[in-house]
């Protein structure tokens, strides 16, 4: 696998997820960044986010669920 993406999606009231942000890079870089991401939940609020590690064939390799992530903060270290 040569390339990959990390995709941040937010859950809408309907239950469906909509993509908010994504980054692309080598599989090694994306996999490393994905493994460093926390899965911690904030006690308050009700926004749910999903982070997917996606390979070059657009298959989801791994997934994490997050709560109350501020858009942009998730990838601030990338």
TrEMBL record:
<protein>
    <submittedName>
        <fullName>Uncharacterized protein</fullName>
    </submittedName>
</protein>
């Amino acid at each position: 696998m040569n390339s990959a993406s990390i995709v941040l999606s937010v859950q809408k009231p309907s239950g469906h997820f909509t993509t908010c942000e994504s980054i692309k890079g080598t599989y090694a870089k994306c996999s490393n960044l994905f493994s460093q991401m926390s899965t911690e939940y904030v006690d308050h609020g009700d926004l749910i986010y999903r982070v997917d590690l996606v390979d070059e064939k657009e298959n989801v390799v791994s997934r994490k669920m997050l709560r109350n992530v501020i858009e942009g903060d998730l990838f601030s270290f990338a």
